Structure formats: C-alpha cells, structure tokens
Amino acid sequence: MDEDVLGSSTGSSSKCSQICTKFSQTYQGLLDKTVPWKKIRWVFVFLLLIGFMARVVLAQGWYIVTYALGIYHLNLFIAFLTPKIDPALDFDADENGPELPTKANEEFRPFIRRLPEFKFWHSVTKSTIIGLICTFFECFNIPVFWPILVMYFITLFCITMKRQIRHMIKYKYLPFTHGKPKYQTHETGKSSK
C-alpha cells in the first residue's frame, strides 16, 4: 500500500514537472521571437506604463505600489547604465588606477552593460504587469500622503543619477551608441569601393 502511495505521488510530481517544463519552454520561445522587435517592445512597455498610471490616477489609490514600482524601475535603469566591469574596481598592476585605451594599438574594450537591454525590458514588463495586478487588490491600497512619496522618489532619483553621471564623467564612458563615431575595418572599406 505504501508503494502505491509513493508511486502515485512520484507520478503526479513528474507530470507537474513536465507541465512546468513545457510552459517555460513555450514562454522562452515567445520571448525569443520578440528579440528583434526592439521598438515595438518598448512601445508596448510605454503603453503598459500609461495604462498603469491611468489605473492609479483614476482609482485614486495604490500609491505605495506605484512608489515601489518606480524605485524598482530606477534600480533597473541604473543597472542598465552601469558597465558590467566597473572601472572603479578594475585596477592594473601599477597603482595609477584603471587604464582605458588611449591609442589605436591598445586593447579595445567595448561598453558592456551590467543589465542588457532585453533583460531590462523584460524586467520592466514583468514588474509593471505585477504592479497592475496589485492595483486590483484592496489589501495593497495602503492610505498614504502621496506627495511625500513623490518627493522621496524625486530626491532619490536626483541623488542616484548625479552619482551615475559623475561616474560616467570620471571614467569617460557613454552608455549609449547614438552619436558615437562608427569605424570601418579595412575589409569593409575595400568592399564598399
């Protein structure tokens, strides 16, 4: 009798595992199909955020959820702007500090983000959907004086962005590719002639 109970629990556990695996594979397949559509993905997130804000404004509540979502998005944005290898921690053998390439024959080190664009988009989308779902539950509608939360958020945003901009200026990096010069290799230059 004990063997029957163990056998049925193992079978249901295996079935549940198969369903979860199938669901995660389908979800990952859908995510993989969205990779090339960068602008459409960000337009969707922008519309989702507008929908969330409309829900909060029209319902006159859920300010704590909005504040938590804003702090989380700020954290994601800072990780998106930060290089994966922090120059402040990357010291050479000598004590001159981090060395960035200054000549053409030195090592090329491209800007690699701590949080890649796709993961940034995915996290913002998931968190906004979770925040939107939370606005349908009254237990998350904690009464609070919302102007104080706005002031906290603005203060935190200014302090964090000031520190991030100082870091960018100190180590001379730009986290965006728009406006940067594009160089051609010798092979590319010859084939275009």
How is the secondary structure organized here?
Elements: H1 2-34, H2 38-59, H3 63-81, H4 117-134, H5 146-171, H6 186-192
Structure in words:
- With 193 residues, this protein is mainly alpha-helical.
- It has a domain at 30-88 and 111-176.
- 65% of the residues lie in helices and 0% in strands.
- The chain has six helices and no strands.
- Helix 2 (38-59) packs parallel to helix 4.
- It is extended and about 60 Å long.
- The mean pLDDT is 83.
Features:
193 residues, 6 helices, mainly alpha, transmembrane helix, 0% strand, 65% helix, Rer1
What would you say about this model in short?
This protein has 193 residues and is an all-alpha fold.
pLDDT < 50 runs, ≥5 residues: none
Nearest-integer average pLDDT: 83
| Termini gap | 81 Å
Instruction: Estimate percent helicity.
Output: 55-70%
The shape, in one word, is extended
Q: Multimeric state of these chains?
A: single chain
Order of helices and strands: HHHHHH
Number of distinct beta strands = 0
Strand-pairing-aware structural class: mainly alpha
Number of separate helices: 6
Strand fraction: under 5%
For the CA atoms, what is the radius of gyration? 24 Å
The largest pleated sheet is described as:
none
Organism: Hypothenemus hampei
Membrane topology: Multi-pass membrane protein
Transmembrane segments: 40-58, 64-82, 144-161
Protein name: Protein RER1
